[in-house]
Amino acid sequence: MPIDAVVFDIGRVLIEWEPERFYDSRIGEARRRQLFEQVPLHGMNLDVDRGHPFRSSVYALADQHPEWHEEIRWWHDCWLQMVPRAIPRTVRLMQALQARGTPVFALSNFGAETFELACETYPFLRGFDRTFVSAHLKCIKPEPEIYAILERETGVAPQHLLFTDDRPENIQAARARGWQTHLFTAPAPFAARLVQAGLLTDQEAA
């Protein structure tokens, strides 16, 4: 089946997203595990991805857990340290696809404010042909609605989309709609998939 557009997740595909590594560096792995077991940091972050305000969501959670007050606030105050670098080869693949004339779309669970911070730090994130951010849409992957919005807004039939994401549940939801998919584990296998699909040459994917 020919591919008319490639859809990228962002976190852990184009930029690193490593809150656990950040906390390990600050308080050690043992205390980080304790923190994440006692405080629903990732659940709070999903609320931000749905469009809840970033700072007030983090600070409200900190107020609910005074024993971890400072550490929870780091999620807001030190957020950029949790996305410490781009993943250069995947960025090159995105740009190589565009150079070949293949549209590239973003489909990402991201907060409104954090997405702006990420774009300021990594300007290539403004380079997608279309960008679908969960906070703007008020729904998140793997909910069917967010995939339906992309289909509707781009006009690309599901079977002609190739989607890469690092989370199996997001891949499964896309596959259930008829999308072609690739579970992202590292840039090299994804590059090979793009070559296999005829979207890039070996040289372009290097």
UniProtKB/TrEMBL annotation:
Domain of life, per lineage: Bacteria
Signal peptide: none
Parts of the chain that traverse the membrane: none
Pfam families, per database record: Hydrolase (PF00702)
Gene3D superfamilies reported in the protein's UniProt record: HAD superfamily/HAD-like, Putative phosphatase, domain 2
Coiled-coil region(s): none
Xref: PANTHER family: ALPHA-D-GLUCOSE 1-PHOSPHATE PHOSPHATASE (PTHR43611), FLAVIN MONONUCLEOTIDE HYDROLASE 1, CHLOROPLATIC (PTHR43611:SF3)
NCBIfam families: HAD-SF-IA-v3
Protein name: HAD family phosphatase
Organism, as annotated: Leisingera aquaemixtae
